[in-house]
Amino acid sequence: MSTAYSSALDDDVHGAPVPVEPEIRRLDGVVREASVPPLAKPVRRGSLADLPFDNASAAPDAVVLSRKTADGRWRDVTAGQFAAQVTAVAKGLIAEGLVPGDRIAVMARTIYEWTVLDFAAWAAGLVTVPVYPTSSVFQARWILHDSGAVALVTETAGQAAALGPELPHLPDLRHVWTAEKGHVEALAQAGAHIPDHEVEVRRGMLVPDTLATLVYTSGTTGRPKGCALTHGNFFAEVDNAIELLYPVFKARTSEEASVLLFLPMSHVFGRMVAVACVRARVRLGHAPSLSAEDLLPDLASFRPTCLLAIPYMLEKVFNTARAKAEAGGRLATFDRAASVARRYGEAVEARQTGTGPGPSRPLKTARAFYDPLVYRRIRNAMGGRVRYAICGGSPLGRRLASFYAGAGIEIFEGYGLTETTGASTVTPPLKPRLGTVGWPLPGTRIRIAADGEILVGGEHVLRGYWDPQAGGVVPAAPDGWLPTGDLGELDDGGYLTITGRKKELIITAGGKSVAPAPLENWLRAHPLISQVMVLGDNRPYITALITLDPAGITHWRRMNGRHPVPPRLIADDEELRAILQRAIDEANRMLSRPESIRRFTILPVDFTEEAGHLTPSMKLRRDQILRDFAQEVEGLYADRGWTAGNQ
């Protein structure tokens, strides 16, 4: 048993050991720092490129991936087969003249070829550069130019064609290959004459401090920055995550552990989990589409035991299930079941944290009663075998976290950045504190600065930012602490709560500081709301722009006998406004008067990535939204007797 775990057991969670609590440091009675020692030994030699070959040597017949075929079935890929594919593609890259240190960009959705290319590029000594497939031509050109990529692999011919006019402006880019045209397979054939020994030599040149990838930030506050992540950064992240999240990566039952990855591999979260699955030999599948008509069949056929998710997705799963129950005349049953699930999840949390006895017998009976009626339906929509979900991107919130826990899906909520190779905090098994983003990941230090900013230290923190003008990588945390730009608080148990974003902090005309994120996250969980932007900087009071969820509005219309109307007219519907006002009133009860939303407007269009209002990771581009909806914003502050003194 690892020294970082105590011997105390909880018979409700597979007899698993309880993790040791973080070391806490206080200043003036306030928790300012929390740290957890690493669970995994640091990797001092080799690189990520070795993982497929280590697996093939240790367990050549073990199934490590599954690849979806044209007929919708999944074909298993063994460790031996995967290592052979990686070798073949790596030799193709070598045959095409790519040399160690060259950057190769990948512009694709979450497809099998992404993982093959990642490991093949590393085996050839290259550096991978993800480009979001939804990026505009200008954004893609910037990343390709800034990184100095010499090769690009697109998923579709359309992506390659769109970038065609930009090629004269990209003098370093010598190769453009397209996955749907079979170019990845062609690379494997092109390298057939290269001896395997050449790949072994290149792998042997790599060490943990070697640059593995340049992952560009989403650029919410300016041009995207290239985060230089090393092989050692990934090892520090994934090895400790595997040890901490043993229910996900080290299943102790006869049920095979598996993860269906559908979040973008262009984002560090998806890449990190893909690497962790290969490292732990957990069966990994790729689902390229997030649309319900594509994803639901993939979940049903793959049947994962764990999902990666962002809060937005879990909110929509809950809201969709509730809407179906309402349409079927079972709304009262669903709402009672949801209440039971929340109370059950909170009772389990209380027992595990030593603050309560756990679920009572009547509560256990009620949960068992509602399981086949409600909870099992939700689990079945996710494939039927899902027991865990790793959630990140923004806070999930206590209401949904307790619901899913009570419904039989344990949520491991986390917080992190591209700069930290993924998670810096994670909910520890057996020690949840719902509504927080958990403890520091083992090997991580979290500090709260005097102004509330979260600082992170650890071996998973990036080497620096890519700056070709400065000759390569510029250190990002020279003193060992990375400023995240996020605001947060540590409680007495070392659990972190995110309270907002430093650059997004609103200062009203009356001098009141308001973090918009908690309000936005709360309201976004409403079934009729898609996106919310809270504003009020240098204004007399707080207001909000609200966009409507199409599926939620369609369901609301059907249940209320409403005919379809243009978006402009539905935005002016008095009954709809009253429903949203009640949601805002509920959110306002958590706040003081100066922090509460006084007025709101419903926009006739949603915020989209295509319109420049959202980043690929669903974050608001606030400046762009303010520019595009300036008239609506001014309307919220039209003179109606409000002055700063009214606050």
Automatic annotation (TrEMBL):
Protein's UniProt keywords contain Ligase: yes
EC primary class: ligase
Cellular component annotations (GO), alphabetically ordered: membrane
Name the UniProt record assigns to this protein: Long-chain acyl-CoA synthetase
The keyword Transferase is annotated on this UniProt entry: no
Alphabetical UniProt keywords: ATP-binding, Ligase, Nucleotide-binding
MF annotations from Gene Ontology: ATP binding; long-chain fatty acid-CoA ligase activity
EC number(s) per entry: 6.2.1.3
InterPro entries in the record: AMP-binding_CS (IPR020845), AMP-dep_synth/lig_dom (IPR000873), ANL_N_sf (IPR042099)
Annotated ranges, domain AMP-dependent synthetase/ligase: 55-466
Domain of life, per lineage: Bacteria
